[in-house]
Amino acid sequence: MPLVTRRFSPRATAIGVVTGVVSFTGLSVTADNSALPIQIAGLILAGAALVTGSRRLRGADWVRSTYPDLAEGGPFFESGASPRHAAVHSVETDLHGTDRTTRFGMTVVDEQHPSSSYVTSTRTDASPELLAAAVQDRPRATVREVRGLPGAVRMTHELQQYGAKLARSIPDDIPAQQVFTVPRDGVVAPRWVTACFCVAVALSGGATAAVLPSTSAIGDVFSQVSPASDGPSDAGTGSPTPTVDSAIGRFGLDAFKGLAALAEKDAPGSTGYVLDIEFRGSTMRLDVLDRATSQRNVYRADQNDDGDFDVDEVEITLGTSSDSSARIRNSFPIATVDPAIVVQAYDEITTTAGAEQSGQDRVEITKESPDDEPLITVRIKAGDFDAKLDGTVAPIFDAEDTATLLAQTAALLPLVDVEPNESRIQSLAIGDSSTAIDLTAYPAAKRGASSHVTVSSGHFPQVTTDTDPPNYERDEFFALSQITLVRLDAIVRANAARVGAEPADTASAKFEITKRQLSGADRDSAPVLQIQVTFPTMSDSRGTYLADGTFVA
């Protein structure tokens, strides 16, 4: 067997240097870049380098399995300075399907240095011609001749045991063989090979990490050419775009000023005729009327990758003269809009509504109709809520809470010139899902005219006057003071017991209150207060009761 020595291994060191440089380059790429695909690629490069280097350290798998005694694993062709000879000492065959594989056990002898002799073997497909030539009595041949095998082998009696059957079963072809030898000064011990490799990896890897420049430029190129990414990123640094967590932020305020300046530049005086303003997180839009063309000019800005307003990226769209909404009567001057008050109203609405602000929220400023004043409308998941340009927020209340609805109704009475204890109300409906409160009254001051007021949570009351309303008798009116929470709750409980309603049904009770004659009563009978209750979540739940809780229909 060959001599095993503890010495420096140039080959293991060279492999270690290459492995260290490549693997630490891969690790640097992973550390310098935030893009996940690049990080994965860097780790793959580092892992592949380590695996490949360690495998090359002792040769390929088939070399290690066939020549386990070659600890260094490198193929060494005979230099000729010291002729080596090989003699076959055994032959084994295995049949794999239709392929016959023959293993030749050989002894390799160095005539000048017998101590370097060793035993090894080679496995190959052998043809009948090969075995026929193998019986020649040539016990030795040079290593160069061993590559051809026929003239290099001396067969023992073992060959005779296989006879003609063996010859017939061996395929016709045999590939060229390569014979490996060991270094003249012996084989390096495996531990020393590993030590040389590891030291070389550590030193070369550390040097690579120290002198290698930043590889973040790879991420820059990737972010520019990648067709898709996990999210928007900064083109200069690879960092993600700042998170948008509200409808109006720094970008929105900057864009408001920038778009106003652009509109005024394109059409002087146009900011005095604003048609619509919309803040929506990463987007801001301004619509103005160009009086010279009677067109709607739309200015839209999207925040850039740094989260800033960029005037060069503003999208401008000109409307057409057929846009019937592009009229002076539908416009308002931008000077009436204070961005700070808009932000304050937005904050108050989201706080009162118990909603978290989001980049998907919208804040819009426009006029609903020519006769209306422009309003701030905040659109969030909880619904739409209005505010005036002076910061006054429309009442926000629970439209399913009876006590709250009665309190809101009392707050509406001054709008129709009626006192709480004054019998001037003709009808009152509360608890409807779309219109929380609907009240019609006949104020004494209006001399026969009626006032109608409606309101829903988050919106300002709408009041209209009818100068020619239906005629009602004075005793058909009632006062709000006659409607108490105690009476309404008692009626809800009575109706729930009558129809078998559950608490979830009674929570959304709707009331319609009037004062009229009972059905089927005498013509001259006096009108009575009637309260109709309905549970919208339950069919056939309607019931009409008197103020004392008596069921009538």
Poorly predicted runs of 5 or more residues:
60-84, 109-119, 131-186, 223-238
Radius of gyration over C-alpha positions, nearest whole angstrom:
48 Å
Largest sheet composition: 7 strands, antiparallel
* Helix content percent band: 25-40%
Count of helices?
Answer: 13
Regarding quaternary structure, what we see is single chain
Average pLDDT figure? 76
Word description of this protein:
By secondary structure, the chain is α+β, with helices and mostly antiparallel strands. 30% of the residues lie in helices and 22% in strands. The chain is built from 13 helices and 19 strands. The chain has helices at residues 10-32, 36-57, 61-66, 128-134, 143-146, 158-169, 190-211, 216-225, 250-266, 339-352, 402-412, 485-499, 503-506; strands spanning 4-5, 84-96, 99-110, 118-125, 187-188, 274-280, 283-290, 295-302, 315-318, 362-366, 375-380, 383-388, 425-430, 437-441, 450-455, 462-466, 510-516, 528-534, 543-546. The protein has a 7-stranded antiparallel beta sheet with strand order 9-8-7-6-10-11-12, with helices on one face. A hairpin with an 8-residue loop joins strand 10 and strand 11. Helix 1 runs parallel beside helix 7 (190-211). The longest helix is centred in the N-terminal third of the chain and has 23 residues, at 10-32. The N and C termini lie far apart (114 Å).
